[in-house]
Design goal:
Layout lengths: L1 H6 L6 H29 L7
């Protein structure tokens, strides 16, 4: 994720930008959703997603 973030500062390659968009959709959204759930459970809340 950090590599993609650093790369997005200067994207001139369409293939690379598509790859990063796919990573966001396929990896990062679910990772953040899981993080929110784990934090919510840890603090005793029941965050509805």
């Amino acid at each position: 994720m950090l590599r993609d973030q650093n790369t997005t500062a200067r994207i001139y390659d369409e293939h690379l930008s598509i790859e990063i968009c796919n990573n966001i959709r396929d990896k990062y959204v679910s990772a953040f959703t899981e993080l929110v759930l784990r934090i919510s459970l840890r603090i005793g809340g029941e965050e509805k997603l």
